[in-house]
Amino acid sequence: MKRTISFLLAFVIMVNAHSMAFADSSSDSPIREISLQAAYDLALKDPVNLRLLVSQIGAIEKQENYLNWQQDKLNNTDTGFTPSNLPTSFDYFMNLVPNYDELSPEEQVEFKQVANMQILINNSLNQLLDGLSTQRQLELEKELDNQRKILSRNLRTLDSDHGKVALELSKIRETVKYYVAQKYIHLLTLENDLNYLSLENEYKKKQLEDEQTLYQYGVASQKTLEELKYAADKQNIDLDQKNKEYEYYLDELKLELGMPLSQDIRLLPVDIPLIELQPLNVSDLVNKNYELLQSDQDVQLASKNYDAANSAESDTERQYLHAVWEVSIQKRNLLEQQLEQKTRAYGSEEKAILSQIHMQELNYNKLLQQKEDNQTRYRYGLITVKELEKSEIDLQKANQLLENAKLSYALFIAKLDLAKKGVIL
Q: Which of 46, 232, 295, 322 would give a disulfide with 204, using CB separation of 3.0 to 4.6 Å?
């Protein structure tokens, strides 16, 4: 009995010491407790990918302002022309000769011939220059019209890009939260694994010590002793690898949260409501999905570009724009189908996890009852201390599996919340 108590007491002390050892004891900085919500807040404080998207939105807005200014400038461009005004009036030429009455009849006749000839020439030149000006005006108006169409198309594209980047920004915010939850819950799972492995490691060491004692008295075989030694060595390796894995993901989380690697942190437990959720509204989740909303932007842009192509455009260009529109609709419909399939799979995933939790609970309760029964048997000398210790280690293994199954459900809840916010994985 004393040995059983000492073993269990050693387990409690050892597990508590191991939990404290998750933080670097050599650091002078105080241990900082982090909840999942606090991890969300830190991760969203100033991530690089969010800053990039915000800068991209600002750049698009500036580009839109510039194109609007160019469009206003084009709209205010004067394409009119001043008609040619070479003199074609005989009075104009008469005024050039104030002493016309003093001319001889022959000189007057000659002047009239010259003036009439010049009037004919000026009329021809005026018609020629007016024709050239009209042609140039038409060319200029056509060029300006093409520039307006290009600007309008670029503005439509920018407006669509603006909307898509804004959606991407919201999508990234929610996705960051999910991946933080994923790392956080994975670390809690590793803590459960480490706690159990530490207990199992202590258990195997005691097994080996007992077997060595029995071997010294000649009641244990060399083969059994070697098998236990191999199992204990393997357990040490597994525990060391699991510790390194924990430290790696813990450092990764610190970087994600913008914390120095030297900062000691302790992760607080997460709330796990083990209540089966109501059936999902597939249509509602799909319609608010960011990817589908971005695809809608592509469809709207293609539709606007096609509508903007009037009858003056070439048939080839209109056919091309119509094909782009149809392809964007097909892509959007295909994406919607894929998202519906993923969303429906959430229900099956939830049932599988809850079923696993239920199975682990049954197993845990069964082993708990066995342990209590074994404690009674041990008091009456019906079983050995080894058998009692074995029932304790089996119970702790069942507890590890149960807690990890619950954490899997917590991660599923985070995944479901992400879907409700517009990101379906």
A: 232
